[in-house]
Amino acid sequence: MGVFRVLFKPFGQTTGLARWLLISGLLLTAMFVTFALFAPWIAPYGFAEEVPKKVAPPGDGFLMGTNDLWYDVWSRVVWGSRTAIEVVILAVILGLLVGVPMGLVSGYVGGWLDRILVLIMDALFAFPPLLLAIVFAFLFRDLIGGGVMAVALALAVIYVPQYFRVVRNTTLSAREATYVEAARAIGAPGHTIMGRYLFSNVIQSVPVIGTLNAADAIGTLAALGFIGLGIQPTDAAEWGFDLQRALDDTEAGLWWTGVFPGLAIVLLVTGLTLVGEGLNETINPTLRKRRLRRFALPPRRPAVEEEAAR
Amino acid sequence: MPTKPEIQGTAHAPKHRAPDEVLVSMQDVEVYFQLRGGSMARLLGMDTGSVRAVDGISLDLRKGEVLGLVGESGSGKTTLGRALLGLVAATGGEIRYAGQDITKLSTRHLRRLRGDLQMVFQDPSAALNPSMTIETAVGHPLKIHGLASGEELHRRVADALERVGLSPPERFMFKYPGDLSGGQKQRAVLARAVILDPVLLVADEPVSMLDMSVRAKILQLMLDLKRDLDLTYVYITHDLASAKFFCDRVAIMYLGRVVEVGRTEEIFADPKHPYTRSLLKAIPEPDPEKALPRDLPRGEIPDAASPPLGCAFHPRCPEAFDMCGWERRDLRALIEAHWTRHEALDFETERGTIANLDDLDEPSHEAVVAAGRSSSPVDVEDLLHRIREEDADEPLWRGVEDMTLTDGGVRVRFHDGADPRLRPAGGVEVACHLYPEVEPAAGEGPAS
Ligand SMILES: Nc1ncnc2c1ncn2[C@@H]1O[C@H](COP(=O)(O)OP(=O)(O)O)[C@@H](O)[C@H]1O
Ligand code: SF4
Ligand SMILES: [Mg+2]
Description:
The structure holds two protein chains of two kinds. Chain A is mostly helical.
């Protein structure tokens, strides 16, 4: 399929520094994905399972200690990966599903529809993302409760304008391409032109935005949890919530309840950012240097020979 | 949409026709592109002007012929070709094909006509979707119109590829455009164009972006396709040499108009229009890429947003005379040309003689050359006389009716020009005042 060819091409094209960024990012991310997939086997306890000891230091049967809710910190970190990955995947997919088609239609159809959509998206884009996430988290909590889906929806709202903008602007220039006119000339209707001719050519930068948004989503999810608007602790383990609980512990000299969830957040954000930057380096032509190779011109033949060759 | 009910659903016109039967008939076709002014101008609803890409063209296209549209870049060839297929909306006139007016059809009805009217583009690399395999791209017309699928589709794509010389087809089907050479891509574009079994093919400079070595092969392929598939061609080019080889008839275009049209042999043997003559003088150049601009007469192609008055070619025409449409912009150009020929010192003094040349920018048959602050109208008159003596043969002076002194300067009045309409001359039709306009006798069609 042409679409996958386009989407995965950059992964194979990276070289040098970009490749190392990409590989280390992918390794970090893969670790958390493994946690997420195999949480029941990796974590010794359930995410809301009380253990015999309260606030025990690391070691002595509890790898990362336990906290004041009688939870095992290591288990919370592992289960937290599952929550984080779930939310991120959902948020990015929802953002994509709404933002990409909207940008495509807006850019191709133009006119009033385009103006109105651009206005709305620019307005959304102008808000501080966290503020927007808080507002929509409130909203969706009321509507569908404080689960994974509500948070993912709130995050998706932040990301829709980004996909919209990039896809719309690329569509705007791509629709002037000769192959689009050629598609009209063979009688392709609008939806075919958008779906078969424009789509695969305007989504090149989507993987970059997707991974960078994923990194951002981890942070925002934690922030929502930290201020108590995230996922209920009984629904799933969530690093931001644990971090907030650990706030009081630091004064009492209990470092492990805060450090480990915090470290998890930092590592996963770093991993995803590295993947995004690695891809960006490859796709974005202004940063790209890998095509610059030394090129030797063949020696010019004498003019006489040139004449004879005609 | 005023489409006649009885022709709906009959996109495919009958293919057997009497010889010389008119396939497409264009009447006063106009395509004006609205210029985009600033957002302020648009908000206030101001008229921001328009580019007259095609400015009143009437031509008949006959079944089975190759009609060449020849002219410099910017003369409106591509736009006329696109209008013929309904890819750009004509802003005036009509284009009749198979009993309907293409300019008035809705998008949905136009889509049905796509099977009959097809296009080949100038740049084959841009004409194919970079993320679609050749098989999908070439077969897509069939799929869109629901004419074939599955095994049948595969077979017909293979046939089409075979027909355009991409064989064995299996070698090309699964490739992407990026994997093919320019010539191969143009073959694929041709395959896609003929797969619906069209009647008319508009080929927009189909070989101008290809290597010299493959140009002749692609043109030969097009002739073979024409013979085998009973096609009619509109062949767009800026290269007279290939038009001579390829076309039955040529229409020479200048600034959105047809200035001369007739059978290829007649036009090449005895060009009538001064523009055609100047184009033909350039032809012996062995490299046709370079041939056109070299020997063209003075001046540049004027701006299609505000074309010259009278005959649009008059500012460049060596044979222009009084009724060709002289105007004040020509006077300005003449004065400026005079200055570029002179020493800086002369320029400084003479520049002071005239107040402001920018006043001469609007088209009009009357010009007032205002005297500068330190000079009198008589100085201006002297200057104009000096310019005239420099080159008494300059055609502009033939257009001057009188020059009178006024309070602030010199008023130059030009003859009211006329826009030359196409008229029969010899075996061809030509739009030039050098040839008398005869009223066509009743019942007689246009010549050529
Ligand atoms: N889509 C468009 N919008 C505005 N102006 C256009 C457009 N297409 C063509 N033009 C203008 O119309 C004129 C004729 O262009 P074109 O038909 O491409 O000429 P040619 O094919 O003979 O080079 C040019 O002045 C060009 O700038
Ligand atoms: S009408 Fe004929 S002679 Fe006059 S300017 Fe035009 S081409 Fe030249
Ligand atoms: Mg062109």
